């Protein structure tokens, strides 16, 4: 890669900004309130708008383009910088129902810059610069009510030379088991050049992590509404950077559209970048800060917690009445509020006996979550219930039946991609489910992109190569330590993730690489509104009482997160607070012994418990106080502290 060296006009504009001359229409300089982020917006000699981004006066993004391409108008070039509205200081407070932080405050400087075109259509670029976040979106103005279709974006990210990245390849649509791709279920490529082609050939998904100089950046999108498609990143030589690209043609609801479409005025989702030191990336809430506020709904049923789940270790043969009954008892004994009953329950158990299980679970203080197949004919999956959610009439009839039965929520699997019509399907399910008080977990699905703020009943989404893949393939199990150690820096930063973590004992036919305390750390390290636990009753029964007791208390709605130390794919130490209690966890993603120095002085309580590896599958347990400063961890090991 090389830096783009501008022409004479570009140099004149740059000089104007730094020496006070401001020729009409030349550009805009933007900063956050703290003065740590600065963006400079210009037009090149072809009328293409672009910006550069600086963190603490170091360039973190070189020439990065903005603009849209409509079906009949190109708003990426031939533009004139028309006007800039006065900078607006915005401030907002909101509350989340689950995740890294309950009460969140967001403040930023907002800039609105208008570009005119010969067509008469105006492109507004909205930029928000917060303490550690840079974000932009587009608003297209013209004849009100005029239909438009967007065929592409010129949005790009021009990273400086020697930037390294952690990115997950996008899969090819209609490949994989029963043609169920894409589902955001590839392993991350780690520490690769920004211009390294995806091994699958379809670019990379969000969130994507970058390190340039001493700064880190995490790129994603949020507020993905019904009129838009999900996007991804692909390197383009002509932009000398990673460009925002649209889905593959197969990623549509049958008979539905692929591309963004709507009527003027039209607004796009936010393109978001967290910028800063690594702790600021991990602790960022930018993905929900700019998501659409919560819809009006009854949030009484929205309660997070842990869940038992038989399928991940016992598979299809154990989706039956007796096993489900056992796992309800297991949930009740652990003080967990949910039990998930998976595929083909309608055939193997049936609605009538399912009602018996729901009633029994209710007597134990447990809610049942039921699996559903989302798909029509976009894949060849045969698991049932299937095709009951495809249209609003059938979906609402099914939801009404489930509400009457007392079902707590649904796990809906096997979606078909990121096309605009498929994005509408997600929104429609969430809105209908909210009307019936049903909690939702999407699997085989796209990235949430802030939807859990907009729809409080969205508890979690898979969108990751999770624990179930470890149970299928030793090669995946071998990569689990490093994979788990990259997720807190990438996929799980902005959005909830149903990794379905934690096998404390054993996995049938698999040599588990991680230690028991590594696994014990995962339900605390990863965030999910409902945390589906992979361990079964027989494995839990082998654990010491102290392990069982801590798992009875693990929150899913945290008050505060604190990143202590780590490096993507190698190690991570994280602290989460609920009330006055702190949970501090660490995992070692590498096959070497490590000695970690930690500072627990931030905790309010004086004493606690340390869970560590003791050479067997049974964790060592000892009392500690906050003066503890060093922890020894073995290859692929970990620890848990409650203090």
From TrEMBL:
Listed SUPFAM superfamilies: (Trans)glycosidases (SSF51445)
Source lineage: Bacteria, Pseudomonadati, Bacteroidota, Flavobacteriia, Flavobacteriales
Domain Glycosyl-hydrolase 97 catalytic: 317-463
Subunit structure: Monomer.
Domain Glycosyl-hydrolase 97 C-terminal oligomerisation: 557-615
Keywords: Calcium, Glycosidase, Hydrolase
Domain Glycosyl-hydrolase 97 N-terminal span(s) in chain numbering: 35-293
Annotated coiled-coil segments of the chain: none
The protein's name: Glycoside hydrolase family 97 catalytic domain-containing protein
Cofactors (names): Ca(2+)
Entries under InterPro entries matching the protein: Aldolase_TIM, GH, GH-type_carb-bd, GH97_C, GH97_catalytic, GH97_N, Glyco_hydro_b, Glycosyl_hydrolase_97
GO molecular function, one term: hydrolase activity
Hydrolase among keywords: yes
Gene3D superfamilies: 2.70.98.10, Aldolase class I, Golgi alpha-mannosidase II
């Amino acid at each position: 890669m090389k830096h783009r060296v501008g022409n004479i006009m570009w140099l004149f504009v740059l000089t104007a900004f730094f020496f006070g001359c401001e020729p009409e229409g030349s550009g805009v300089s933007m900063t956050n309130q703290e003065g740590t982020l600065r963006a400079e917006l210009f037009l090149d000699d072809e009328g293409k708008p672009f910006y550069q981004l600086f963190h603490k006066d170091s360039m973190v993004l070189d020439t990065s383009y903005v603009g849209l391409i409509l079906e009949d108008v190109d708003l990426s070039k031939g533009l004139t910088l028309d006007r800039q509205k006065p900078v607006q200081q915005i401030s907002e407070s909101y509350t989340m129902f689950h995740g890294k932080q309950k009460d969140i405050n967001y403040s930023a400087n907002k800039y609105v810059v208008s570009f005119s075109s010969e067509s008469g259509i105006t492109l507004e670029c909205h930029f928000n610069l917060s303490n550690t976040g840079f974000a932009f979106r587009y608003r297209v103005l013209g004849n009100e009510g005029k239909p438009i279709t967007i065929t592409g974006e010129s949005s790009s990210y021009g990273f400086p030379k020697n930037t390294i990245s952690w990115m997950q390849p996008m899969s090819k649509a209609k490949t994989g088991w029963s043609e169920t791709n894409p589902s955001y279920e590839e392993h991350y490529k780690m520490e690769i050049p920004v211009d390294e082609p995806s091994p699958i050939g379809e670019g990379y998904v969000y969130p994507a992590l970058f390190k340039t100089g001493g700064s880190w950046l995490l790129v994603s999108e949020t507020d993905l509404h019904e009129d838009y498609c999900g996007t991804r990143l692909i390197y383009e030589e002509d932009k000398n950077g990673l460009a925002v690209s649209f889905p593959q043609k197969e990623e549509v609801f049958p008979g539905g559209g692929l591309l963004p479409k709507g009527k003027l005025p039209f607004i796009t989702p936010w393109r978001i970048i967290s910028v800063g030191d690594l702790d600021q990336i991990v602790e960022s809430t930018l993905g929900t800060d700019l998501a659409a506020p919560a819809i009006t709904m009854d949030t009484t049923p929205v309660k997070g917690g842990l869940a038992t789940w038989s399928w991940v270790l016992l598979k299809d043969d154990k989706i039956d009445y007796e096993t489900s009954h056992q796992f309800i008892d297991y949930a009740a004994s652990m003080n967990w509020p949910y039990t998930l009953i998976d595929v083909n329950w309608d055939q193997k158990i049936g609605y009538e006996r399912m009602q018996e299980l729901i009633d029994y679970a209710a007597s134990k203080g447990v809610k049942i979550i039921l699996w559903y197949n989302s798909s029509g004919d976009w894949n060849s999956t045969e698991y049932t219930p299937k095709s009951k959610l495809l249209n609003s009439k059938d979906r609402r009839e099914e939801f009404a039946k489930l509400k009457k039965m007392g079902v707590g929520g649904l796990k809906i699997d096997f979606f078909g991609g990121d096309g605009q019509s498929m994005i509408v399907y997600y929104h429609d399910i969430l809105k209908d489910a909210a009307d019936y008080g049903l909690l939702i977990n999407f699997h085989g699905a796209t990235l949430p992109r802030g939807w859990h703020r907009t729809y409080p009943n969205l508890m979690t989404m898979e969108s990751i190569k999770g624990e179930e893949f470890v149970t299928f393939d030793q090669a995946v199990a071998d990569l689990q330590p490093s994979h788990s150690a990259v997720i807190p820096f990438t996929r799980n930063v902005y959005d909830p993730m149903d990794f379905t973590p934690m096998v404390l004992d054993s996995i049938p036919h698999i040599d588990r690489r991680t230690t028991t305390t590594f696994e014990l750390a995962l339900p605390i390290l990863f965030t999910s509104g409902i945390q589906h636990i992979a361990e079964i009753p027989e494995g839990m029964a082998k654990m010491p009482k102290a392990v069982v007791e801590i798992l009875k208390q693990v929150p899913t709605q945290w008050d505060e997160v604190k990143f202590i130390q780590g490096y993507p794919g190698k190690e991570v130490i994280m602290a989460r607070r609920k009330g006055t209690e702190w949970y501090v966890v660490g995992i070692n993603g590498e096959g070497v012994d490590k000695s970690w120095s930690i500072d627990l002085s931030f905790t309010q309580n004086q004493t606690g418990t340390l869970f560590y590896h003791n050479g067997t599958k049974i964790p060592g347990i000892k009392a500690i106080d906050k003066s503890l400063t060093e922890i020894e961890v073995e290859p692929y090991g970990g620890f848990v502290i409650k203090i």
